[in-house]
């Protein structure tokens, strides 16, 4: 039995749909079981094999002004869940982020690289990993998540490209998109592998789609495929611009490509290239 915490979020909904489609037994909760309050967690009496935390504070810019709530959700939340999982005999899987790194690297970040977050969101996500690690939980760090449910870069770009003649997108931040549908499938694979007694240790794993690109590259491909698959109904010019032209409250890492060799090796995975997954997602969108 799985417990998906944060089942109304982008990843939580994706995982719920996957488990529903595969006939996997799970329950899902969102804000009604507040992860910042341990006493609400312990009310869940069901015996769980896995507790998967997809909840968190994810508004990167707002976090700069909303430090206390962000810390409660991203540090106390996973700590409370990990304590609950430990005392109830469940395994825990938690989701973290590429924003635990500053972006000073020029080659992909490995799991063991020192973390050095530059914003409140990244700092709290980094600190939130500790409570999970000390109780032998599993953590998947991912990046640039998009999918069918909720607000994300792809959905925002599709809307803007259908409304405007031109869109400017930053060309000096490099990372890897991740299709939430692919991440949900990997969460399932990881938990199944552990349950089957596979050689997989608790700790941190990096998972993103293959490829390190800029937000501009991503937008240009969204436009190209969007036109090809008729998700976009009109022309739009995609212009590269510098981060300095679009300052945001929170500074983003200039480079946050994650090295995914550990999860590929451990789970014998082939990870889809970002363009393949984007096409898959836009094909789903084109049929709606
Ligand atoms: N999105 C990305 O690009 C990205 C990249 C890297 C890593 N991640 C990580 O991936 C995970 C999932 O991200 P996501 O984009 O799917 O997040 P999301 O869409 O923001 O979903 C988070 C969910 O948690 C809920 N929640 C808020 N406060 C809660 C509380 N006190 N108790 C229980 N649930 C609560 C939210 O409800 P409300 O919406 O009502 O607040 C929301 O349904 C997060 O850990 C995030 O840090 C995301």
List the helices and strands and how they pair.
Layout: E1 2-5, H1 10-22, E2 26-29, H2 38-41, E3 50-53, H3 67-88, E4 91-97, H4 120-133, E5 138-142, E6 145-146, H5 153-163, E7 166-170, E8 174-175, E9 178-179, H6 180-195, E10 203-206, E11 213-214, H7 215-228, E12 237-241, H8 261-267, H9 274-286
Helix pairs in contact: 1-6, 3-4, 5-7, 7-9
The structure holds NADP nicotinamide-adenine-dinucleotide phosphate.
Detailed description of the structure:
Strands 2-1-3-4-5-10 form a six-stranded parallel β-sheet, sandwiched between helices. It has a two-stranded parallel ribbon with strand order 6-9. It has 288 residues and is of the alpha/beta class. The protein has a single domain, classed as Rossmann fold. The two termini are 32 Å apart. The protein has helices at residues 10-22, 38-41, 67-88, 120-133, 153-163, 180-195, 215-228, 261-267, 274-286, and strands at residues 2-5, 26-29, 50-53, 91-97, 138-142, 145-146, 166-170, 174-175, 178-179, 203-206, 213-214, 237-241. The chain has nine helices and twelve strands. The mean pLDDT is 97.
